[in-house]
Design brief:
Blueprint lengths: L10 H12 L2 H15 L9 H8 L3 H10 L13 H17 L10 H5 L4 H14 L22 H8 L25
Helix pairs in contact: 2-7, 4-5
């Protein structure tokens, strides 16, 4: 879909080049392999940006993925290849992954995938979803998420902590006279 637009120039081209430089073929390949384990698709799991775009651009595989993790996450998957129907699929996927626990900062915007603007953020979102897959009894990818480490303190422990002066507040020991900031006033 990005074929109809003029190329970016100047600072925008530099920014786009920086975004594209973050994309990693190996991580994209690992992500597509994981999707294939969960859904049985796609046949081609090459990690290059063009293949990732072709596999995911209509959003049907993304919807199939979240429905495989949790049945009924996306109620209606559009099979049409019309632009707005495909973008609806991508948006439905994004809403579903937020409900499955993917943080909002690790998702992407529909346009990032549809117009191939930021495939790196698409892979980040899928990797984050892959970490959550273990919660649904499916194989997961990437590093294991940390578990909560909730600590309970007694009232006595909390009161004892109030008497400690942190070193961030400085110290009142030593000579403080003669300390001045900046230049001295010239007369």
């Amino acid at each position: 879909m990005g074929d109809y637009r003029a190329g970016k120039a100047g600072i925008n081209a530099e920014a786009q080049a920086r975004i594209h430089s973050k994309y990693n073929n190996d991580i994209a390949h690992e992500t597509l392999e994981w999707i294939k384990v969960i859904t049985g698709e796609p046949a081609n799991t090459a990690g290059d940006a063009d293949n990732l775009y072709e596999v995911l651009k209509d959003g049907t595989l993304l919807c199939k993925l979240v429905n495989a993790l949790q049945e009924g996450s996306v109620k209606k998957v559009n099979q049409s290849t019309m632009a707005f129907k495909c973008m609806e699929n991508i948006n439905a996927f994004l809403e579903a992954v937020k409900k499955l626990g993917v943080p909002a900062q690790e998702t992407f915007q529909t346009i990032d995938l549809w117009e191939k603007q930021n495939l790196y953020s698409v892979v980040v979102c899928l990797q984050s979803l892959g970490r959550k897959a273990g919660n649904f009894g499916k194989p997961s990818i990437g590093p294991k998420e940390a578990d909560k480490n909730v600590r309970e303190f007694t009232e006595e422990q909390l009161k004892a902590g109030q008497n400690v002066i942190s070193l961030q507040y400085g110290t009142n020991k030593g000579q403080q006279s003669g300390i001045s900031f900046g230049n001295k006033r010239q007369m």
